[in-house]
């Protein structure tokens, strides 16, 4: 079975004989085909380019808004930059134009001598170059008492030359304290200027306790003076149930000519007078001073006799 062939000439010839509705329907169909083809060929690419242009317009409007905000704050940012540049110039002018290591070594020796310290080591290290300055570190080791070392450090901070202190280490070395630190001095290669005035910290040791000394200091802990055997049948007081190391002196109280010592233990303050007992070793208060109290304790010597040893409780000024 074969399909009939489509004869376009006969179709177009017969179209003129079609009724009016058929002609109108054919015209609409042809117009639709032309519209679809034109849309696909010409309008679709233009529509895509239009969407791209609209998206670019939105991005450009956002950029304009951002740059408008930056332009509004440009003057304030310029002033801030000028202030920062002036501060940098001031700091650079505070640096000397050449190394001051000899002067720093002289200052270290002078401060150590003035505070009674023993300089054990001074070791200059390699010079280090930075973008705007040079720095010269020196390792220092000194020995002495606690407050003297603190005065030495505050003296380093108060030098006219710029010197900074780093890597501070404090440890006990026999009867003294050993202080190791790294000091650095700086200079600017393009010349110096006036030093920046700054507020200095001054260490004042008056009224401060050396933290490396115990509050209760036992005098002559090994030897003692022979005494009579204490009354072992004597009733013990409340303060004799605690070790002396658990007490700290927090002040004194005067009533007429009589002076009392105020001792604190377990968050409770006790009042003692001369002759009162303290501690489990038959300790008895013998004298009360403004900053300390003295007592004697009794210890068996292991051979049937008893020894008397003095002891001192210092005032805790931090209480």
UniProtKB/TrEMBL annotation:
InterPro entries (UniProt xref): PilO, PilP, Transl_elong_EF1B/ribsomal_bS6
Gene3D superfamilies: 2.30.30.830, 3.30.70.60
Alphabetized Pfam families for the sequence: PilO (PF04350), PilP (PF04351)
Protein name: Pilus assembly protein PilP
Species name: Pseudomonas canadensis
